[in-house]
Amino acid sequence: MTRSDSPLPISVDHLVIGAGFAGLGTAIKLAESGEDDFLVIEKDGGIGGTWRANTYPGAACDVPSQLYSFSFAPNPGWSMSFSPQPEIEAYLRDVAETSGTLDRFAFETELTEARWEEADRRWHVTTNRGEIVAKTLISGSGGLSVPKMPDIDGIETFQGEVFHSARWNHDVDLTGKRVAIIGTGASSIQIVPSIQPDVEHLDVYQRTAPYVLARNDRRYTGVEKLLFKHLPGLQKAYRTAIYWARELYVPGFVWNPKLAAPARRMALANIAKGIPDPGLRARVTPDFQIGCKRILMSNTYYPALAADNVDLVTDSIVKVTGDAIVTAGGVERPIDVLIVATGFQTTEQPIAEHIHGRDGHSLSDVWAEHGMASYKGTTTRGFPNLFQIVGANTGLGHSSMVLMIESQLAYITDALRTMRTQDVATIEPHRSAQEDWNDDIQRRMRRTVWSTGGCSSWYLDAHGKNTTLWPRTTFTFRRLLARFDAENYDLEPADA
Ligand code: NAP
What we know:
By secondary structure, this protein is an alpha/beta fold. Helices cover about 30% and strands about 20% of the residues. Helix 1 packs parallel to helix 12, helix 5 (about 220-230) crosses helix 6 (about 230-245) and helix 12 (about 400-420) packs parallel to helix 15 (about 475-480).
C-alpha cells in the first residue's frame, strides 16, 4: 500500500524527494536508524527514478551489475554481467518491497517549491498534491533527470514523430521507417544497434566522436547464480574485485592522462574490429584524450554504424524542416522519425530553482555566478537542514554512482543522529568549510583529463568549471563522509 491516493501528512521530520537509488536508499537507511517519521515524494508513478524513466531500446547499465546494486542488498539473480534496464527497475522495486518502507512513498507527487522558514525552522514544501512541513529536506532528485532538447532551427516544425531518448514513445513502430538520431552519447550508442535491424534507413548525427570500449557483456550461468545465492561471501568478493578494477581508472583521469594510453588502444581496437571501411573508421576516431568525455561501452555500436542501412552524418545540422534534416552545404535528408539523444541538464540541477534558503534566494540564484558548490556535495551554506544526494562534484566517470550515494547516506544518517542525540534544531555548514572543500576540488581539477583533455563535455558548466565530477577515488569520498563533522557546522540548539 503506497500513499499515492491517500492525503499527504501535514508535517514530517524528514521529506525525501525522488524514488530512484538515492531516495530509496535514504528511506531504507532512515528506517534502519530509527528516523521513522519520513515521507518520500516522487513525481513519477513508481520506484526506479532514471531506471524507470529511460526505457529506450537497448537501455542497459554500462557499469557492471555487481557494482550497480546496494552493498546492503546484493542481487544474486542478475542475468547479465551488465544489467538491462528492466532488471534494474525490477531490482529497485524488489528492494523497496522487501525493505518494508513502501508505505512511506507518495507517488505522482511533485515538489513545486520548498522554502526555509526561519520562524519555525522548518522546510515548507509545496507539491501538486498539497503542502508539507518538514524538519529536513533530503533531495535524491537525480543528476540526469531532465532531458536537454537541442536548440535547432525549425525542430518544432517537424511533422513526423519526434521524441527524446529518455521519453521514448513506444507507440511509434520504427519498422521500415527512415529514422534520424541526433547525438552519439551513452544513450545513442545503445539505441543505434537496437533499432538498426528494423528501420529502413538510419542517419546517425555525430557532433563529436566518443570513445567506445568493448562491453564484453555475458550471461551469468545457472551455477554462478546458485553460488551467488548460497555463498554471499563469494558474490561480495567478486564485487570487490570489480570495484578495484574500476578504481584503477582514477590515476589516468586525475593524475596523468598518459596512464590511460592502454584504454585508448583498446578503444581504437574496438573501432578496427567493428568497422572495415577506413574512411568511416577515421570519422569515428576521437580527437581528444580518452576520459575527457564519458567513456562508452558497446560491442555492437560500430558494427551497426557499418551496416548498409546506416549513414554517419558529421556535417553540422543547419535546420530541421517538416520532413527532413538539412546539414551544412544544404544537403537534405528526408526522415519519418527523429530521435533526440542529446543528454540531460547536468550543471544546473533542475530542482535548484525550486529550493529557497534562509534569505529567500534559490539554490539556482546562489549558484548562478560561480556554478554549483556545496559542502561535501551534500549540504549548502544558507540552506539549513538541506541534504542533497548526488549534489555538486559527486559524479563519477569510472564507477558506480551507488557507491557515492551510499557514502552520502552514511553521512546524512550520522548528521541526523547528531541532531537527535544533541537536541539540535538546525545544521548548516560553515562558509569557510564549504569554500575550502570547493577550492580543493577545483585545484585538483586543473590537471585532470576533464580539464586538459581537449574536449567540451557535460561535466563542465557555462563557466568551463567542472562542478559535476569527483576528482578522487571513491574510497576517499567514503572516508571523508564516514562521520558527520559537526565541528564544520553551525548547530542551533532546539531550545534556542
Ligand atoms: P550525452 O552523453 O550527454 O550525449 C549527448 C549527445 O548529443 C552527444 O553526442 C552530444 O554531442 C550530442 N548533442 C547534444 N546537443 C547537440 C546538438 N545541439 N546538436 C548535435 N548533437 C548534440 O547524453 P546521453 O547519451 O543521454 O547520456 C547522458 C548520461 O547519462 C551519460 O553520460 C551517462 O552518465 C548516463 N547514461 C548512462 C548509461 C549507462 O549505461 N549507465 C546509459 C545512458 C546514459 P557532443 O559530444 O558534441 O556534445
